[in-house]
Design brief:
By secondary structure, the chain is of the alpha/beta class. About 45% of the residues lie in helices and about 15% in strands. The radius of gyration is 24 Å and the shape is elongated. Bound molecules: adenosine-5'-diphosphate (ADP), magnesium ion and zinc ion. Magnesium ion binds near residues 50 and 151. This is ATP-dependent DNA helicase.
């Protein structure tokens, strides 16, 4: 039918000013959302064009009225609203930075019989205020409640970096306004996180799922064992230099990230690397805000080559020319590892990701997770602690067994790949991996 699909293309070209869809996942997802026949789950990496998957159907989909967009990031929300407004689209936000007068104006519009507003951006906190519920009730009564889009929906899962407790309650809304179709959008996530999203948001089955592949073909992955090395810092330095490339000595273009378990080890690793001639700076939550931003700023400008940070610490910006990501201590989950290592090679050029695994780190993490499990009181805490433990076991397997690293990760992310052939140590140097694993086994203390 040329009906709404024609309108979708016309809106893409004339309202958004795009010639075509940016990729086939975007195209398929938009057509599905626009048809409004079922709930939709979309997962694509940052920058792949997820916003359009609800923005375009909000204007050209089969449903009338207002699309409510839930997003935890006020800054990005404000940017999106401005961009939409500059394209002549009526978008509003009701986040806490908006004045009382503005809120009154927008609320009045939303409660009218034919609201102008097409997209309404709100934070997850706001969704649960009485004022907001009466707005939604009114939209529903007027048959002007088009869609709910949950951006950054991985925040519902504690496995994502950005777990956001308010997201857990959003599922109540799905039940209350049961006829309004939902769209959930995430970065690339493991099957576990995807299932959390479907479950906690109460998405209505059968959910249409659209996912971009998780394969990062330009990244070379490997794992080494700290306890089997005479001097792991020397190894880290030569790993860094080889990832940065020969040109780097002259151009200083390209940089790296090292992840550590604690603030103290960040300081220590940065200090060691700097003394070995590789300009490095620690950046962690223990530093003053201005020192953190200074470190990030200097790193982005190339004044320092390596930033050393704690696992799970969120950096403000991604830069494309990261040539390596080293985990000085193993990540706690595959989702964490995929996101952290995935900061390498954003420009599509070759990049390397290495884990410095150690039995000591592993046992420390296992102890912490076991204690959490024992301390858990409520059923929910128990389930969480147990899945944290299970999730870490998958990282253990990644490090302690010889499987193609790409295939291993992709399987966790619900994609398929038989073997990468030469983009990981297991495929490229199987004998040396076997030797390293034997050596690691042999270091076990009885
Ligand atoms: P994500 O939310 O997946 O990180 P965004 O929605 O922020 O990605 O989009 C990333 C960029 O891609 C934006 O600048 C957006 O304008 C652009 N973009 C999205 N769709 C298209 C398209 N079909 N054609 C060209 N550019 C697009
Ligand atoms: Mg986005
Ligand atoms: Zn491989």
């Amino acid at each position: 039918s040329t009906g709404f699909k024609g309108k979708v293309i016309e809106t893409l070209n004339n309202v958004f000013g795009f010639q075509d869809f940016i990729n086939s996942v975007q195209e398929d997802a938009i057509k599905s959302v626009a048809s409004a026949s079922q709930d939709v789950f979309i997962s694509m990496p940052t920058g792949a064009g997820k916003s359009l998957c609800y923005q375009l159907p909000a204007l050209a989909g089969q449903r009338n009225g207002v699309t409510v967009v839930i997003s935890p990031l006020i800054a990005s929300m404000t940017v999106q609203v401005k961009q939409l407004q500059s394209r002549g689209i009526c978008a509003e936000t009701l986040n806490c930075t908006v004045s009382k007068e503005e809120i009154a104006r927008v609320s009045e519009d939303l409660c009218s019989a034919y609201p102008c507003t097409k997209l309404l951006y709100v934070t997850p906190e706001q969704v649960f205020t009485d004022e907001f519920h009466s707005i939604l009730d009114q939209l529903c009564k007027n048959r002007m409640f088009a869609y709910v889009a949950v951006d950054e929906a991985h925040c519902v899962s504690q496995w994502s970096h950005d777990f956001h407790p308010h997201y857990l309650k959003l599922g109540e809304l799905r039940k209350k306004y049961s006829r309004v179709p939902w769209v959930a959008l995430t970065i690339t996530v493991s099957v576990t996180v995807m299932n959390d999203v479907l479950y906690y948001l109460n998405l209505k089955p059968p959910v249409a799922v659209f996912k971009a592949s998780s394969f990062r073909s330009n990244i070379y992955y490997d794992v080494v064992f700290k306890e089997c090395m005479d001097n792991p810092f020397d190894d880290l330095k030569s790993f860094a230099l080889s990832a940065l490339g020969k040109e780097w000595e002259f151009t200083k273009r390209g940089s790296g990230i090292v992840y550590c378990q604690t603030k103290e080890s960040c300081e220590m690793v940065a200090d060691k690397l700097t003394k070995l001639g590789l300009n490095s700076r620690p950046c962690h939550a223990g530093l003053k805000d201005e020192d953190q931003s200074q470190a990030q700023h200097d790193w982005m400008l190339g004044k320092i080559s390596v930033i050393v940070t704690t696992i799970g610490f969120r950096k403000g910006t991604d830069i494309p020319s990261v040539r390596f990501v080293a985990h000085w201590s193993v990540a706690h989950s595959v989702d964490g590892y995929y996101q952290e290592s995935g900061q390498a090679g954003g420009d599509g050029q070759p990049a390397r990701c290495r884990i410095y695994y150690s039995r000591e780190d592993r046992n420390l993490i296992m102890d912490i997770l076991k204690k959490d499990e024992q301390a858990a009181k409520t059923q929910e805490e128990k389930i969480k602690a147990h899945s944290a433990y299970k999730s870490f076991k998958i990282m253990r397997k990644y490090c302690e067994e010889a499987h193609c690293r790409h295939s291993f990760l992709m399987k966790e992310f619900g994609d398929e790949l038989y073997k990468c052939k030469k983009y990981c140590d297991v495929c490229y140097k199987p004998r040396s991996v076997d030797r390293r694993l034997d050596h690691f086994e042999a270091t076990r203390v009885s």
